[in-house]
Every structure is written in C-alpha cells, then in structure tokens.
Amino acid sequence: MTAILTADGLGVRLGDGRALVHGVDVELAAGERLGIIGESGSGKSLTALALLGLLAHPLTSFGSATIATGDGRLQIVGAAPRRLDRVRGRTISAVFQEPLASLDPLMRVGKQVAWPLAAHRGLRGDALRSAVVAALADVQLPDPERIARSFIHEISGGQRQRVAIALALAAGPSILIADEPTTALDVTVQAGIIELLQREVSDRGMTLIFISHDLPVVAQVADRVLVMRDGEQVELGATARLLRSPQHEYTAQLVAASRALDDFLPPAPAGATRASTDQGETR
What we know:
This protein has a single domain (5-282), classed as Rossmann fold, CATH 3.40.50. Helices cover 36% and strands 24% of the residues. It has helices at residues 44-52, 81-87, 109-121, 125-138, 144-149, 157-169, 187-204, 215-221, 239-244, 249-257; strands at 5-13, 19-28, 33-37, 60-69, 72-75, 92-95, 175-179, 207-212, 224-229, 232-238, 281-282. Residues 271-279 have low confidence and may be disordered.
C-alpha cells in the first residue's frame, strides 16, 4: 500500500547549519495513528512544523517529507509557499496546544471556520453558513449557532479547542497533526477532547499524528509510537510491543516513569513473555 506520508531523514536546522532535529524516518498508511513522544525540547513540535511546512526563519527543513495529494505526491521540504497553502487544510491540517495559535481573537468563530470551507470546498451563501454550523455541531459544541456568532474570548478553553478542531477538519484533510492538544486543559476536559479526536479520525478514516509528552495518553491513541530525544528519533514500533518491551534505554525510562500505564496497555497474547518477539526499530 502506498504511504500517505513519508519522512526520510527529515530534520530541522538553524541558519548557521546546526541541526535541531535529524534522522526522522517513518511511513504512514491511510488511517494509521502515530504517536510521537518525548520530553520538552526533544524536537516533537519542530518535526510537526516541518511536516506542515510552517517553520519560521531562520529554521529550515532538510531531508525528505512527502504527502499524497489529489494530484500526486508533494515534497514538503523546499516546496513553494503557494503550493503549501493549497494543501494545508485540504490535505494536511493541525491542532496545536494553545487554540489561540490558530484562532483570531478579533474575528467571530463562524467566519474563521467559514474560511477553509470557502477556500477549499467552494461553499458560498446559505450552504456555507449551514456548513459552518454543522462543523461546530460535529465537534459537540453546545448551541453551535451561538458559538458561530461568538468571539473566542466569550467561550471556554475547552470550547476553543473544539473550535480549533472544527477549523482543522473543516476542509476534510486526510492527515491531522495534533500537537499537545490537551496539555493546557483541565483533566476532565482533556478526556473529552481525546475522545472527540479519536471519533473524528475514525469516522473520517484520517491519518493521525498525535504528539505528546504523556505516554499513557499516546498509548491510548496510537497504533505505533515514535520516540524522540535530543532532536533524534530513537525508537519506532507498534504501541503494545514498545510498551511491553522497549528496545532503547530512554524508551524504557519513559515506560517506567509512566504511572497508570496498565490502564491503557492491551493484555499480552496467550503464552507471550515480556520480551516480545515483535520487531521494533531502535537507534
């Protein structure tokens, strides 16, 4: 099966050539869910920005990162800004830790959600207004018509994150990057956002890249986990295998430090030992 996203030696460097991220190698199939785990400063968010083509000067990406689009494959590294603008939102989209990073405080919610619907799906007039309300209802916002008329300072933090998800999903992307989408939220709100993301990704058949420093949360969401440390990919493997039998010392430290991990760990197959024979990738 052709990968919907491929990274091959993907990295991020400063203007003086120093690499902040290097050696990210992964292929994702349609509908697959990848978790990226690592401590603060490990390069998780820089990797996400590189995949989105959103690195700001003086940062640049190197290596290769390609995504499948409606008219072939796009090489994100070095792509022209106009080409990236055409695929962001429609093919690949993102939800960030702080909703204010993607929401305009001076614009009503409905107008913000309307933009990708108009730009990528060509909706206008009554059809556009109906689609905006439907997009807000899809993310389980109460009274979506009222939310559409609101500014973001008039709604709660959890509601803002749901609006950010609605905005990211509005144009029907095939790939969603969720970069620490629950970190700034209360625990009870976090659970609702994770459940919402899982449902939307499943219902839409999307590929998900879920980034977090919280291994139990990643274990709950992801089919595979990519572990990063100091800007480098150190392990990649199936979630259950990686949790039961981590191959890299740092991964083992993360697993050992994660409390309540057993709540998310699938039971071992009959006769299996802790040293699973599943093949993983380490560096």
